[in-house]
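Input chain follows. Return structure tokens only.
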Amino acid sequence: MHAWGEPAERIEAAALIVTELVTNAVQHTSTRRIRCRLFRSADGVRICVWNRGRARIPAADGPDGDDSLDCLAEDGRGLLLVDALAARWGTRAALAGRLVWADV
């Protein structure tokens, strides 16, 4: 991203997002195959993390769809960080695995 001329703030946000998405893939799937790609566009950078697992990705709010205190537990804050740092993010599931993407 530095070579693309992206600003330092965007690079730092992207680094944290990649860390959180890859960590989720490692923790919540049994696969050893995880891919991470960055795509540059006129609007910014899209981060894509793909794995062969199909575990459900929880919403950025609480596990029951609310802002419950369970979200304050040490584990499980990664997607809250992604939600705060990314312009938008989402997931796609298929038979071949799951893709989680974030735009910065």
